[in-house]
Each structure stands twice: as C-alpha cells, then as structure tokens.
Amino acid sequence: MDTNSFKYVLEKNTELNNHIKSVAKNNKILKICALGGGPGTELLAITKFLHKQQLGFSVSVDFQLLDKVQEWANSWYGIRNTINDTLQEMYGPDRSKWPIIPSGNFITCDVTQPGTLRNAGNIWGQDIYVINYLLSEIFKDDPGLRQFMREISSVAPSGSHFVFIERRGSMWLQRMKEIAQGADLIISESYESRLTKDSDELPEDLGDIFVKLSPIRKPRLTCDIVYSIGVKE
Ligand SMILES: C[S@@+](CC[C@H](N)C(=O)[O-])C[C@H]1O[C@@H](n2cnc3c(N)ncnc32)[C@H](O)[C@@H]1O
Predict the structure, then answer these.
(1) To test ligand 1's pocket by mutation, which of 44, 117, 134 has the most ligand atoms within 8 angstroms of CB?
(2) With contact defined as beta carbons under 8 Å apart, do 67 and 131 qualify?
(3) Which domains does the chain have, with CATH numbers?
(4) I need a surface site. Which of 16, 31, 66, 191 has the fewest CB within 10 A?
(5) Ligand 1 centroid from CA 38, angstroms
C-alpha cells in the first residue's frame, strides 16, 4: 500500500485535475468512490488536494469506500473524524466556511461478487471511481470484478472518471486497459512514475490538517507506479 500515489495523480494529471475543479465549481459537491480503499488513503489524498487548491468556495466531498475487510472501517472513520475535527479547529464550527466538507461511508463488500453489490449503498452515479492498488491485491483476472466494473460504468454519469493506479508492470497495465475497455470506458494513455518520499509526505510538512494523522499513516520510501484514466462517454 502506498500513501501518495492518488494525490500525485490528482496533482499531475491535468485532465483529472480539471474534471474535479469543474464538478466542484458547478455542483459544489464531489462524489467519489474508492474500490478497495482500505484505511482511507484516497479520502486523505482528495482532502489534501482540495485543501491545497483553495478554490474559494466550500465543496462537499461525499466519499464512499468499498472494502472487503471490515477491520479497515475504524481507520476510515478515524481519518474522517480527525479531518473534520481539524477543519473545525482551523475554520470554526460553521461548515459553510470550510473549504472541504467530508462525509461518506465505509461499505463492507467484495468487489468480485457483483451480485452482493447491487444494494450496496450510494456507490452508483459517482463523479470519480478510484481503483488504487486493488488489481494487484486481487491478483488474478477476476470475471466478477470485470462484471462489477461493467455494472458501475453502465450507470455512471457521462464524464465520470475511473482512476486506475497500480505498481508498475506490463501485467497491471494490460489488466487496467482490459477492464476499462470491457466497461466501455475511453481509456487514456498510461503514465509511469517513480514516487519517492517527498516533502509533501513528511509528517512535519503535511500542514496542520494532517499532522494528527501521521501516527496512522507511514509513508513508504519509493514506489514505481503506472496509472491510466478511463472516462465514461
Ligand atoms: C493494497 S490495499 C490498497 C488500499 C488503498 N487503495 C491504498 O492505496 O492505500 C488493497 C485493498 O483492497 C482490498 N481488497 C482486496 N480484495 C478485495 C475485494 N475482492 N473486494 C474489496 N476489497 C478488496 C484490501 O482489503 C485492501 O484494503
């Protein structure tokens, strides 16, 4: 698991960056779902990203995290509550003055079992789906996962973005392409990068909002990633 890959993609990928800013500006709410989100890495990343953007208005971040490991729920709610507490300390109790208003749920489910997901809360119709280090965790080319991706894509809004991030390797790149194509997504070119523990991930440089979280999240030193973004037409 790595800590900063999604945040890196949010900052580096202009297309994704513009999509988020446009949805935030037009709707004042960003709906995001992390498949295999584990401890809450993606919530932390999107909160850091939006906080840094200083858009000048308040954005509600409605975040749904799907994971088959129920034990991650404590970590996820802990991160969400700490973010809320810290925003309150920084901006006061009136949430309309906060740059980001995080909310959402942890949903325990197995994404390779699409039948069990049909009643799985508010995961349909999101602006962004994040598949971050999930494919290598599932490892095999699972037909259930492909089916699930087809189902969410079929009801996803036009223009919604599916962000695939994996450890670098042709096998994972090929897997993300096949899953995206099977779900009728327009897949971008792929991008590779080596991420190192940069200043942004040093606890002392995270800023007031995230210092409290440093005991929970321990950044890795380096990781090689490949990512690609699928867009629903
Ligand atoms: C390597 S972790 C990545 C966590 C997070 N996305 C990140 O990058 O920090 C993979 C996550 O996928 C979850 N996972 C693995 N197989 C799954 C499945 N079939 N359904 C749902 N979650 C699954 C694991 O429980 C774990 O939290």
Answers:
(1) 134
(2) no
(3) 5-232 (3.40.50.150)
(4) 191
(5) 5
